[in-house]
Amino acid sequence: xxxxLIVLLILFLFGYFAYSYMxxxxxxxxxxxxxxxxxxxxxxxxxxxxxSGLIQAMKLEEGDSVHKGxxxxxxxxxxxxxxxxxxxxxxxxxxxxxxxLHAGTRSEEIAQAKAIVKEREATLLNANSIxxxxxxxCKVGAISLQExxxxxxxxxxxxxxLASSREALLEAxxxxxxxxxxxxxxxxxxxxxxxxxxxxxxSYTALLSPSDGTVLTRIKEPGAYVSAxxxxxxxxxxxxxxxxxxxxxxxxxxxxxxxxxxxxxxxYPNKIYSGYIGFIxxxxxxxxxxxxxxELRTSLVYRLRIIVKDPENRLxxxxxxxxxxxxxxxxxxxxxxxxxxxxx
Length: 344
Prior knowledge:
Largest sheet: 6 strands, antiparallel, barrel
CATH architecture of the largest domain: Beta Barrel
CATH class of the largest domain: Mainly Beta
CATH superfamily of the largest domain: Efflux pump adaptor protein, beta barrel domain
Distance between the termini: 73 Å
Oligomer: single chain
Helix content: 40-55%
Strand order of the largest sheet: 1-10-13-12-11-14
CATH topology of the largest domain: Elongation Factor Tu (Ef-tu), domain 3
Radius of gyration: 45 Å
Shape: rod-shaped
Number of domains: 3
């Protein structure tokens, strides 16, 4: 009988110590898990055209899913197309002018300039003969002084026309100046830049989604005139999604950027979302009233941003979630975490 009691006592003690050991081990394991509370924070972006114009089409409704690069709205581009056609015509005219300058003066034009010089030389010679004759006649009183003075004016005009024709001949022989060619080339470059700018403007009449997401608000309708930068859609971004949470000072030393996290929500209690800490605020603040935490409301906390993976797009803006941080695991600051940490 005593032996049975001793055996039972030994078994009891063994079981007690084994239970105590497992309990202490479980407590240590649980100490590495930090539970905090927060809310889903989904980024929103207001989409607008880069140019002004009349909305021709709005292709999406509120709640529609959209993919990155998808065209979601159009402006009427006719006004910009007309401007582009005019600019292209000006480019062609300037190209012709520049080609003319590069080709130089034609032989026919030089021959014509020489003929004009000879004609005006003969005119000046004739004017000088008339002036000499009238000078003699005026001295003997055969003609009036006014007629003599008119012959002087005719001689001077003939001389001026001859000088002008000789300059034109010299310019034709020398060809266009390098400064004129450079000015024409600069004008052509400016017109080509204007044309290229209008082509880019026409491409801006199509509004593209910057990322995958969901249409939250359809602000404008077809037929409305919008200015550049005026919102027409509000879009929620599918990825990345953030959890806005807070940790008190005594637990601050247990966490670091890149630490893994497990997130659950009341809507899908059996669904565990994975994530990691992307940002820890360097300054303390008072706990917002919206934060669900058992700690005192007046205690100072530090804001966290936890990047969460939600490939099925179940999490919605503002949903309260429970976050379990594994203080023993740290995935390291990958590129996404670094970027998020810098951009807060």
